[in-house]
Amino acid sequence: MVTTTKGLVSRIGSLTGRAALTAFAAVTVAAGTLGLAAPASAAESCSNVEVVFARGTNEAPGVGLTGQSFVDALNARLPGKTVDVYGVDYPASLNFGQAVDGVADASNRIEAIAASCPSTKIVLGGYSQGAAVAAYTTADAVPAGFDLPAGVGVMPPSVASHVSAVVLFGTPDTWFMNLLAHSAPPITIGQPYAAKTLQLCATGDPVCFPGGLTRAAHSSYKDNGMADQAADFAAQRLTGNNSATVQQTAGTVDADQTAPPAPQLDAPQG
């Protein structure tokens, strides 16, 4: 299985431009079980909560500014609880084909936690490209029409119970993905995770809000109050209050509505 993963990632990583984007969309949706990471040491201390977060494009390794703002807000809402943080290991570059590394890494980490620390509650999250990585990680099925290598699948259903919440900031909208690669499948949350997912999109964000042209909106999640909103949602899920409403603030593009041109992505864009 590990050999299959390396070969697949190598093939995806060698692509650029439209081919890479198409390959990213087609393959990441099912990359969750590619080459499971080794379980954590049995002597490792297990935390009450672990946040697995994928940063946005061109952010430095770690969880990024939005991720850190969310983690800080969540810690403040969980007094007395230990919260570990794991930044998904992937390039987060403009070569979106390499995002497959993030899907595989996030899946590996989640499965490793579930196996070695079954009592640890997991919060999966991501911002921008990282939100796409996190969303594809939850996929419970391979889109029709996509042929994937033998042995490639999705995370086992049993893992879903270990993930208490999923929080996504500035998730690329379907119309935006279609501008990049017409054959890309939509970013869809897997059914076992749908009821515990919160998606947030700032008004005017050109990545997730159709018609949005305010680039500053895409960088606003760290300080526009949405990190606090996501932390409230996650804390409620972690403490057993599952009555919070799943929310997606981005609009949609109707079939007869023309989507605006894709914005220029100046680094760091997310």
Outline the secondary-structure elements.
Blueprint: H1 2-13, H2 17-28, E1 49-54, H3 64-76, E2 83-87, H4 99-116, E3 121-127, H5 129-137, E4 163-169, H6 174-180, H7 191-194, E5 197-200, H8 215-218, H9 226-238
Parallel strand pairs: 1-2, 1-3, 3-4, 4-5
Could you give a short description of this structure?
With 270 residues, the chain is an alpha/beta fold. 34% of the residues lie in helices and 11% in strands.
Molecular structure report:
The chain is 34% helix and 11% strand. It is an alpha/beta fold and 270 residues long. A five-stranded parallel sheet has the order 2-1-3-4-5, sandwiched between helices. It is globular.
List keywords for this structure.
270 residues, alpha/beta, Rossmann fold, five-stranded parallel β-sheet, 5 strands, 11% strand, disordered C terminus
Strand order of the largest sheet: 2-1-3-4-5
Total beta-strand segments: 5
- What amount of the residues lies in strands? 5-15%
Mean pLDDT: 77
Unreliable spans are 1-40, 148-152, 244-268
What is the rounded Rg? 17 Å
Sheet with most strands: 5 strands, parallel
Number of domains: 1
- Number of distinct helices: 9
Global morphology: globular
Percentage of residues assigned to helices: 25-40%
Give me the CATH superfamily.
Alpha/Beta hydrolase fold, catalytic domain
What is the highest CATH level, the class? Answer: Alpha Beta
CATH topology annotation: Rossmann fold
**Strand and helix order:** HHEHEHEHEHHEHH
CATH architecture: 3-Layer(aba) Sandwich
